[in-house]
């Protein structure tokens, strides 16, 4: 039964709750339909578990920014928490362990951006490998999925471990396979059963594979940490793992949350959070640029005007490229790479938009509902850079641009992601023309739902541009 003054929602069935009201494979359509019936805050029962879905920029900001202290925790009783031993940062509950690790990641990312081998340098280094791959495919069709995934993974691997990997490298192959299977499992039907029925957790059911996969990844990272410990020079960190080991020494036994076991999950978390997100956004970008050649040509014209004979683009150049900026932001809006997030209410009954939310309620901000919200965008349902341009052709960012979420748990890799998207897209558009192959049929823009959404696999053709 719904508690007093709980948000409204569809009728609840015994045991199942509202599990028949939403497709577990892709709940986004059902979430949109329920919003039209019940408003910006409505409730659902996932089995016996209370959940509240929040839609629209105002309600989401109220929850994630104004009431951040109440709604920044993560549920701790899910399959994925048992798999990661409640360590890392992405799924850590709101508390000192999460805060210390978040701060440390932000600080380390900032320091690497400023150092001699700066982040920009690393990204340009990786772009060279993308260019080799594209040059080998000139005149042929290629599937860019692996290439972009690899590039994003390598950029974050350089920050974490000070190294990049070839795609067929055993280490990378195993990690990518385990993480892909884990994230599929984490929002699939077996996880829902594990989360709602504690009595089945010790049975030999398919979710046991999630534990095996996690153990495999953890072992690989543990070995890397051991290697780092053997070769590091204290006080002269090469990467985030070295910085973390320095920090552990500095802290000694101060009772802080820093430990080697934490480091293993933390590195896996940052790799996971920084790979699929960026690569799926890039994939969406090139899909839309190929199928909208007039937009691609206008980007290329602006890039030519601003860069002239300069040998390569720098992140600072973005301020002189309003159209390119608008296109990249529009790509992020339409890609909607992280469609939903999940929190839980950590304090006792909290008031939200006139409703009462009891402690322990799962809170699901529907980021999709903001990125295509009517009234917030000039063209909410189509790919159109005008969404980010004013009448003078200047770049503007509407309040509802929230692909990185909002509040204390918003994406901590936003700065890195924005730099990657800009440098990669500008460099590639300057050098190549991207063409939707004639025999590829009509493009299908419907994304595949997941923790991160991805476009359906597609082929691209590349040509060297005449000016190169
Ligand atoms: C276009 C690329 C990216 C997008 C769209 C994106 C989006 C997001 C979103 C929406 C969240 C919040 C999830 C929530 O509220 O539950 C998030 C969290 C996070 N992101 Fe990103 N992200 C991107 C790239 C990156 C990169 C490159 C990194 C690498 C450092 C990263 C690291 C993280 C981490 C660690 C969190 C968890 C923060 C916390 O819980 O305190 N992200 N991201």
From TrEMBL:
Subcellular location: Membrane
Lineage: Eukaryota, Metazoa, Chordata, Craniata, Vertebrata
PROSITE patterns in UniProt: CYTOCHROME_P450
InterPro entries in the record: Cyt_P450 (IPR001128), Cyt_P450_CS (IPR017972), Cyt_P450_E_grp-I (IPR002401), Cyt_P450_E_grp-I_CYP2D-like (IPR008069), Cyt_P450_sf (IPR036396), Cytochrome_P450_fam2 (IPR050182)
Any coiled-coil regions, as ranges: none
Protein name: Cytochrome P450, family 2, subfamily X, polypeptide 9
Gene3D superfamilies: Cytochrome P450
One Gene Ontology molecular-function label: oxidoreductase activity, acting on paired donors, with incorporation or reduction of molecular oxygen, reduced flavin or flavoprotein as one donor, and incorporation of one atom of oxygen
A Gene Ontology term for the protein's cellular component: cytoplasm
